[in-house]
Amino acid sequence: MKEIALLAIARYGDLIQTTPLVRALRRAHPGARITAIVEDRFCGILPLLPGIDRTIVLNKQDIAWDIATGESPLAPYLKMDEFVRKLEEGSYDLLVNITCSRLSAFFASCVTSRRRTGISADETGERNIVTLWGQYIFSWFNDNIRKYNAINLVDIFTRLGEVPPDGCRVELVATEKGERFADDFLNRHGLKGQRLVGLQLGASEATRIWPAEHFARISDRLQRELGVRTILFGAPVEKHLAEQALAAMELPAVDAVGETGIEELYSLVGRCAALVSNDTGTMHFAAAAGVPAVMLCIGPAFFRCTGPYGEGHLALQPDLPCSPCPYSLVCADPVCRDTISPKAVFSACRMVLAGSGGLGNADFAGVRVYRSSFAPDGYLTWDGLFNVDARDEEQVKRRETAWKGCFDGSAKGCGAPGDETLRTFWELTGQGIETTEAIIRAARKKPLPVDEIRRLGEKESAIEAEVKLMGYRHGPLAPVTEFLTLMRENITGEELERIARQTRALYETGRCLAALL
Q1: What are phi and psi of 220, to 5 degrees?
Q2: Which residues are 293's β-sheet partners?
Q3: For residue range 198-241, what is the model confidence (pLDDT) as tens digits?
Q4: What is the phi/psi pair of residue 368, to 5°?
Q5: Which CATH number is 177-406's, of 3.40.50.2000, 3.30.450.40, 3.30.1490.20, 3.10.20.90?
């Protein structure tokens, strides 16, 4: 394999989360040239990304501006045409599309590639998702299903590239520009040689932001009781959050909000001993720098999916039945912001800075605490530490093992499950296997037994309907039925036997998952 394309029309955090994929592709295909297809708004991170040989940039901001101003109706079309022509110029052995949007599907369809994974589009413009991992990532975008996902996005990206995770954190390369800035910043503020804790105040969405007053309380306690200095991080548009936090502090923190570009931010975060962060890109900078992060899971923050990728990070999840909430929810009373108390965050910081000795459930009242590590298979996993229900944890681990084992072929023993609901589903998918096998046999007969095939088709349709109904009735089965529906949507071909074989594979996958769950 000599030419690989990575389509990532995504944000900073998503681009950082592709670095283990690129690393694994390098190891699996030495000497290959890797081309990244990215959006102009996030090009600032490219100097930090290792392993990328070439980039093709979508000037989305320019196109949007041309459309908004309307000065030249042809201008946005011509710029998009120029970008598409660049996509069409090359020929690739593998295209990996990590972006789950219809626009990226169109772009993927423009790329000539012998093999592609992730979402693409067929000749009619309909979406086409080829691999199981691609179908998996798209299936749990449903808000009601996302909470059941136990596999980190980094590992899913890596498996999209058809390479295994290697059990190592995301990685970035510090630049000379960034390092010079960090040295100068520390010197200017008298921080050289001191132990630092970063506080990331903002996030891309207001629903994920911990109150500035709480950051002030944690800053004061960290400085007073642990003898550290605190630095405030954030984008220029988050300056108001810094002003609110500083006004509420007794001991002032050092304000770096709005002062750093991407390169400078990474180097400065790398000088910290820990980072307290909302669910946003700075958290991934900390993970890449090997700095332990305390992730505040406010609103729709799913730490198992998008949490910091590396060992030793902590996730603080409000112990509320509604947490994490769906992305689409407009909450009139976001109690999760106050459920994570400054006391709990201080205890988490103390844990990553000085160890967990003496800490107990009472130190994290109202909060579930989890710590990240790498499992023996190289995937990231999270283990409950405080205020965690053991039965819930067991179910999460089973889901994690089930999906990986089913997709990677490592599942052992797919006998009938003990749970009554799962056993019913297991039996139902078994009927689907038998019915599709009968259709395969009938499709080989000459002449074609039309009436028999019609009868079998009606039977299979009834099984399909019952499978979907079980997903509606039983929440934990919803991810499985949603995934099987997506598999069905991506069945290709016109020959009856080929379609029946793919449908049988669908039921075999469902039966395997039911046995493992």
Answers
A1: -60, -45
A2: 275
A3: 999 999 888 889 999 999 999 999 999 999 999 999 999 999 99
A4: -95, 135
A5: 3.40.50.2000
The torsion angles phi and psi of 495, rounded to 5 degrees, stand at -75, 135
Integer Cα distance of 167 and 121 in angstroms: 33
Q: Where are the domains of the chain?
A: 3-161, 177-406, 420-516
Give the separation between CA 162 and CA 179, rounded to whole angstroms: 35
Instruction: Give per-residue pLDDT as tens, 485-503.
Output: 999 998 988 899 999 999 9
The confidence band for 326, taking pLDDT boundaries of 50, 70 and 90, is confident
Rounded distance between C-alpha atoms, residue 481 and residue 144, angstroms: 13
Distance CA 352, CA 314 (A): 8
C-alpha distances in Å from residue 108, one per residue of 6, 116, 131: 10, 8, 14
At 358, the amino acid letter reads: G
Cα(216)–Cα(219) distance, integer angstroms: 5
CA–CA separation, 5 vs 16, rounded Å?
16
Q: pLDDT exceeding 90 applies to what percent of the chain?
A: 72
In angstroms, rounded to a whole number, what is the distance separating the alpha carbons of residues 369 and 317? 6
What CATH number should be reported for the domain whose range is 3-161?
A: 3.40.50.2000
Winning range, highest mean pLDDT, from 34-38, 87-91, 413-417: 34-38
Helix (H, G, I), strand (E, B) or coil at 19: helix
Q: Residue 100: which of 213, 34, 9 has the closest Cα? A: 9
**Planar angle of CA 457, 466, 461, nearest 5 degrees:** 15
* 8 Å CB contact between 250 and 342: no
pLDDT at 69 over 80: no
